Amino acid sequence: MHSKNLNFTINIHQQIPWGTKLTKKYVENNRGGESVRIAIIDSGIDGTHPDLVGKVKKGLNTIGTGGEQEDSLGHGTAVAGIITANDNEIGLVGITQNVELYPVKILDSTGKGSIKNFVKAVQWCIDNKIDVINASFGLMKDDPAVKKIIDKAIQKT
Length: 157
Prior knowledge:
Elements: H1 18-31, E1 36-42, E2 60-61, H2 75-84, E3 99-105, H3 115-127, E4 132-134, H4 144-155
Parallel strand pairs: 1-3, 1-4, 2-3
Helix pairs in contact: 3-4
């Protein structure tokens, strides 16, 4: 039996998915250069991540675990990256670069949170004039308090 040594180089290049190109063009053409203020209601955001440096602002932590941006789960950071990962020659490029991110932590390290904290988070977004609220999780049941606060947020747009 003979063995061959295979020599190859893996080149990792930044990629811009086609959907990102289309959405980015729409967002940037309709904002006139003004930053989009986006709240990520999730597990927090790692503001030191190279793809998010310079975009993460002061947010809210509803679960009392310390720092606003702490993300012990990683989900909020991943969502933030899809939206606005820096155009920095590594990884993927986010949908738009003209973004201010506001971490609104309601999920713990296991991905669990409460309706009460979700309502508090959306109210914070309304009070702080957030343009876009992203909540990338589901609820186990319908809740009148959730419907009420979402209706209120929609009326403020």
